[in-house]
Write a structure and sequence with these properties.
Layout: E1 5-9, H1 19-28, E2 32-34, H2 43-48, E3 53-57, H3 67-87, E4 91-94, H4 114-134, E5 137-141, H5 157-167, E6 172-177, H6 178-184, H7 188-195, E7 199-204, H8 220-229, E8 235-238, H9 246-257
Parallel strand pairs: 1-2, 1-8, 2-3, 3-4, 4-5, 5-6, 6-7, 7-8
Helix pairs in contact: 3-4, 4-5, 7-8
């Protein structure tokens, strides 16, 4: 056993059930629950499930680098913090830019300039200040550009780590997604060791296919061993599809990490 806890994205499992029932099933199986955008969900009904929410998307619109979009990002982050309060959700997730409903960047970027890096750091400093005031943590997730999120800026784990370390606040951490990192960078054990205290959460799915651990090439048992050796105490969340029966997939996820 370990001191980390396991959670599951309700957006990607039990897809035959209404969303509230998905949350209830995940909770009944003993996992924490993660959600994406909240604006199309019944927040009161979610809160009434009694589920332990571990992460939700921390913005509705905006990005880190364009002045008008920065204001949109900050205002929708403030709205998201109010929702997180209602759900008692400790972490709010961010991306390098706003994504559409297909996961594609609203404003695709081919070259990330030095000026964009500076603006991103300053924007993330403001978000960390909002998080500090609310007592909640924003996490910045790495993505892959080869398969799922082409032309997304600040996509690699190396990028999110650099930004988080530049801000240097306990209210901004990495959401280290190892599915995306395997596609974009590899060397996962070295990556988690290098990221260390900058990690606020770890998300997992196997490659290829983005299904539960054990369906692809990633040795998640070795990753789990490395995390235990680091005394990692945060959340590990399955953000992936079930390759077959959902409960069987969640049992496989649990077996790889416990």
């Amino acid at each position: 056993m370990s001191d980390y806890s396991l959670s599951v994205s309700a957006e990607m499992v039990f897809l035959d059930l209404p969303f509230i029932e998905r949350v209830q099933r995940i909770n009944q199986l003993g996992f924490g629950v993660e959600i994406w955008h909240w604006e199309n969900k019944d927040i009161d009904a979610l809160a009434a499930t009694g589920a332990r929410f571990t992460s939700m998307t921390g913005y509705l619109t905006g990005n880190l680098t364009d002045d008008a979009e920065i204001e949109n990002l900050l205002s929708s982050a403030a709205e998201s913090l109010a929702v997180a309060e209602r759900l008692n959700c400790p972490s709010l997730n961010l991306h390098g830019t706003g994504l559409d409903n297909k996961g594609l960047p609203v404003k695709p970027v081919d070259i990330v300039t030095g000026e964009m890096w500076v603006k991103a750091v300053r924007t993330l400093e403001k978000l960390a200040a909002l998080g500090e005031k609310a007592g909640r943590v924003f996490t910045l997730e790495n993505l892959n550009t080869a398969v799922d999120h082409p032309r997304t800026p600040f996509a690699k784990a190396a990028d999110t780590l650099a930004l988080v370390e530049a801000v240097n606040s306990p209210y901004l951490k990495m959401n280290l997604d190892l599915y995306h990192a395997q596609i974009g960078e590899g060397n996962l054990i070295e990556l988690v060791q290098r990221s260390g205290n900058a990690i606020g959460e770890i998300q997992v799915a196997d490659v290829p296919g983005r299904c539960e651990p054990g369906t692809g090439e990633i040795n998640y048992r070795a990753v789990a061993k490395a995390l235990r050796a680091m005394n990692y105490r945060g959340v590990i969340a399955l953000e992936g599809w079930a390759s077959g029966d959902t409960e069987t997939a969640l049992a496989s996820f649990k077996a790889h990490f416990e």
